[in-house]
Design a protein that fits this description.
Rossmann fold, 10 helices, about 450 residues, about 25% helix, globular, 4-stranded mixed sheet
C-alpha cells in the first residue's frame, strides 16, 4: 500500500468572499487587501520582471482551469491543450479547492479587473492533481508528479503538502519524497514546500534537503503560532488572512468547474506559493536553481528572532536594492522557456498604482453585478501517465486524513476593507465555527 499524505491546510479558516469581483471598481479589486504583496515588496520586484516565461508546477488537488483570474495563466501547448497531469482521475481540474487557492497566490493575472494579483502574474501554472476531492493522495503519486513536472518543463514546483502520517497519526517523514526532490534539484528545478501547521518546533525536513521549506508569518512579521519550524535553512512568508482564487460556493459543496470565487485562507500551504511565485520571478530573469535558492535565503529580513528563519523580501531577492548582482548565470533560459508555451490572447494592461488605504469599515457592495461566466474551456485530453518510480520507503498504513477545507463563515465585504481589521474581528467566531465544521468532516473521513 502506498504511503498516504494529507493537504497541509490546517486552513485555520477559509471564508467565501461572496461579492462578485465584476461588481467592484478598478483593476484587481481585492489588491488592497493583499497585505502579503506589500509585505514581500512584490510591486518593487516587478520593476525587474513579472515572471514571463517561467513555469510553476502546482502539485496539489488540481486547479480551476476556467477561473477568470487563472485561465490565461494555465500552461498550454501550441494547440491550446493544457499541459498538466492527473494521477487520481482523468484531468487536472480542481474538485477540492486547495490547489486553486495555491495557484492564485502564485500567478493570478494582474491588472485585469478580476479579484487579485499573483506574485508572478505572467508566469504559467502547470496543474498536476495528486490529491482527490477529499484532499487524500499517496506519496508514490507525489514522487511521480515531481519527476513528470521536471521532465515536462517546470522551472519551479510548489508542494503545499503535510508530512506523512502513520496509522497512529505520528509523523512518518516529509510530504515531499526526498529522492524526487533530489531529482528536481539535479535537473535545475526549484522545489518549494510548506513546513506544516502543527506548531511543531521540529522540521520534517533535514537541513540538507535541496528544497525551500516555508513557514508562515503574520501581518506583524512574526512567525504564525500554527506554523511548524522550517528548519535552519528555511524561510517565512505570509500565511495568515491570505486572499486568493477559489472554486467553491457557499453551500459547502466541492468545486463544480463553473463556480469561480475568492476565499481567505490561513496556513503554511498558502505561505509556500508566495515563495514559489518569487522563485518564478527569478527564474524568468535567467537565474538557475542554485542562484534562486541562494538569493531568497540571503535576502531575508528579521522575523523578530536572531536564531529563527527570516521573512522573504522579493524586491531584495530581485536585486532592486542594488545589494546583489542581478546578472544571471543562464541568461538564455527565458527565451528557451517562452518557446514552449502559447502566448495568451491578450496580455493584461500594466497594473495601476494601488489606491490609498480606505476606511476600514466592512460594508456590502450596494449593487452587486452578476459574476461573469467565462467561455467554456475545451476539454483537455488526459496527459499520458508516466511509469511510476516509487520511492524506496516503508509503507505505513493509511492515516486518518485531515478534514478538507470548507467555508466556515460567509461575509460580504468591500474591497477597500483592511483584512487585518475584519479578520481579527471575526477570529473568535471563525475558530469556533471551524472546529465544529472540522470535527464533522474528520468523522466523515476517519
Amino acid at each position: 500500500m502506498a504511503r498516504r499524505v494529507r493537504v497541509a491546510t490546517a486552513a485555520l479558516a477559509v471564508m467565501l468572499l461572496l461579492l462578485p469581483a465584476a461588481a467592484l471598481a478598478g483593476n484587481d479589486p481585492y489588491r488592497s487587501q493583499q497585505w502579503a504583496l506589500d509585505d514581500l515588496r512584490v510591486e518593487e520586484a516587478w520593476e525587474v520582471g513579472r515572471g514571463e516565461g517561467a513555469v510553476v508546477a502546482v502539485i496539489d488537488t488540481g486547479v480551476d482551469l476556467a477561473h477568470p483570474d487563472l485561465a490565461d495563466r494555465i500552461l498550454r501547448d501550441t494547440e491550446g491543450e493544457v499541459i498538466g497531469l492527473d494521477l487520481v482521475g482523468d484531468d487536472p481540474t480542481d474538485r477540492h479547492g486547495h490547489g486553486t487557492l495555491v495557484a492564485g497566490i502564485i500567478a493570478a493575472t494582474s491588472g485585469n479587473g478580476e479579484g487579485i494579483a499573483g506574485v508572478a502574474p505572467r508566469a504559467r501554472v502547470m496543474p498536476i492533481r495528486v490529491l482527490d476531492e477529499a484532499g487524500a493522495g499517496s506519496a508514490r503519486n507525489v514522487g511521480t508528479a515531481i519527476r513528470w513536472a521536471v521532465d515536462n518543463g517546470a522551472d519551479v514546483i510548489n508542494l503545499s503538502l503535510e508530512s506523512l502520517r502513520d496509522e497512529e497519526g505520528r509523523s512518518a517523514g516529509p510530504g515531499a519524497p526526498p529522492e524526487a526532490v533530489e531529482y528536481a534539484w539535479e535537473n535545475d528545478v526549484v522545489v518549494v514546500v510548506a513546513s506544516g501547521n502543527n506548531g511543531s518546533a521540529l522540521s520534517a525536513y533535514d537541513d540538507d534537503t535541496p528544497a525551500l521549506v516555508v513557514g508562515a508569518s503574520d501581518p506583524e512579521g512574526r512567525p504564525a503560532e500554527f506554523s511548524d519550524d522550517s528548519g535552519a535553512m528555511g524561510v517565512l512568508a505570509p500565511g495568515v488572512g491570505i486572499i486568493s482564487t477559489w472554486c467553491r460556493g457557499g453551500d459547502g459543496a466541492g468545486c463544480d468547474g463553473a463556480t469561480h470565487t475568492y476565499g481567505i485562507a490561513e496556513g503554511t500551504s498558502f505561505a509556500a506559493p508566495h515563495v514559489a511565485g518569487l522563485a518564478a520571478l527569478l527564474s524568468a530573469e535567467g537565474h538557475d536553481a542554485e542562484e534562486i535558492v541562494a538569493r531568497i535565503r540571503s535576502t531575508v529580513v528579521s522575523a523578530g528572532s536572531e536564531d529563527g528563519p527570516g521573512r522573504v523580501d522579493a524586491a531584495a531577492a530581485m536585486g532592486v536594492d542594488g545589494d546583489i548582482d542581478r546578472t544571471p548565470r543562464r541568461a538564455e533560459r527565458t527565451e528557451l522557456v517562452s518557446e514552449r508555451v502559447t502566448p495568451p490572447a491578450g496580455e493584461a494592461a500594466p497594473e495601476p498604482t494601488p489606491a490609498p488605504p480606505p476606511d476600514p469599515q466592512p460594508a456590502p457592495d450596494p449593487e452587486p453585478a452578476p459574476e461573469p461566466v467565462p467561455d467554456p474551456e475545451p476539454e483537455p485530453e488526459p496527459a499520458p501517465e508516466p511509469d511510476p518510480e516509487p520511492d524506496p520507503a516503508p509503507d505505513p498504513a493509511p492515516a486518518p486524513e485531515s478534514p478538507s477545507t470548507e467555508p466556515v463563515a460567509m461575509v460580504h465585504t468591500d474591497p477597500g476593507v483592511d483584512p487585518a481589521v475584519w479578520v481579527k474581528l471575526l477570529a473568535a467566531g471563525l475558530v469556533g465555527a471551524s472546529l465544529v465544521a472540522w470535527s464533522a468532516a474528520a468523522r466523515r473521513l476517519a
